[in-house]
């Protein structure tokens, strides 16, 4: 078979833009690459692999002859159009939340469960949420060695996780408070200084603040992001009874999610043993020398592909338990890169 044809749906969005950059730097496994977006973006010319490609409007016909279609569009668009693309013969790799918990749709992180990508009754493969993805390469490696049993996670999520409106809002707030060194000392003063919150994707000011909320409200006070961490971790790792509790927090960082992870295992685990496992994981980078100020931060990680792990400690009062701090670029491995890696698995299958 000749090189398969790839379609990128949502090519002009925030993750789509990162996707085009990634496609230019990944192995050359694709033949034709079609760029697809809403009618208002049709006709735009984008650069892919050194060539100019005209964006096409989303329609059933654009999927004719497409082997793999990567979707980065809102849930409702994926829910409508992914089955249409699959019916036209494309294998869909979907980055939305529309199909993640569908029992007939595999939820795939290649480092953890690449084999699941072959079992796709609906012709659709789901990409996990960026928060879950930020820790999966590391936790998958540790699970294979020690048997993961419990996860308690606190996330520190970048504003770009809320879409293009997130960074714009943070920059607007930074501009509004710049130069005023008195802010943050009196209750409510930051809230008064920033633009109208009715125009914000966040429920509280992001500048000079942390916001213990990400996602939408679900039952019993949980947010949708917190439940995704629980449900998606179970599905990806193949541990349906994994105990998971998450608190998702938005922080004034543009890009790169961080997670403080409390992980309990079935087998005894040591810091040295865990570090050795993570050092061998091909997409994990260990930065862990606190005495020298070495640990991952978003400022170090943004724009890169690996999962970074540091602050590896034996939990003082919990047996078989580690504490870790994990960072990953939410627009790259957290979205675009993992989607591309899944698509490459399918390409290898189709041409193998």
Overall strand count: 14
Q: How large is the count of helical segments?
A: 10
What's the order of the H and E elements? EHEEEEEHEHEHEHHHEEHEHEEH
Q: How can the largest sheet be summarized?
A: 6 strands, parallel
List the uncertain runs.
none
Distance between the termini: 8 Å
Instruction: Provide the helix percentage.
Output: 25-40%
Q: Output mean pLDDT.
A: 96
Which CATH architecture of the largest domain?
A: 2-Layer Sandwich
Give the key terms.
alpha/beta, Rossmann fold, Dihydrodipicolinate Reductase, domain 2, 2 domains, six-stranded parallel sheet, six-stranded mixed sheet, 14 strands, aspartate-semialdehyde dehydrogenase activity
In short:
With 352 residues, the chain is an alpha/beta fold. 32% of the residues lie in helices and 22% in strands.
Structural features, described:
With 352 residues, the protein is α/β, with parallel strands linked by helices. The chain folds into two domains: 6-127 and 335-351, NAD(P)-binding Rossmann-like Domain (Rossmann fold); 132-328, Dihydrodipicolinate Reductase, domain 2. It has helices at residues 14-25, 75-87, 110-113, 130-146, 165-177, 189-193, 224-237, 271-280, 298-301, 332-351, and strands at residues 6-9, 33-37, 45-48, 51-54, 56-57, 68-71, 91-94, 124-126, 148-157, 243-250, 257-265, 284-286, 307-314, 321-328. The longest helix is centred in the last third of the chain and has 20 residues, at 332-351. The model has no long low-confidence stretch (mean pLDDT 96).
What topology emerges from the helices and strands here?
Layout: E1 6-9, H1 14-25, E2 33-37, E3 45-48, E4 51-54, E5 56-57, E6 68-71, H2 75-87, E7 91-94, H3 110-113, E8 124-126, H4 130-146, E9 148-157, H5 165-177, H6 189-193, H7 224-237, E10 243-250, E11 257-265, H8 271-280, E12 284-286, H9 298-301, E13 307-314, E14 321-328, H10 332-351
Parallel strand pairs: 1-2, 1-6, 2-5, 6-7, 7-8, 9-10, 12-13
Antiparallel strand pairs: 3-4, 9-11, 11-14, 13-14
Helix pairs in contact: 1-10, 4-7, 4-10
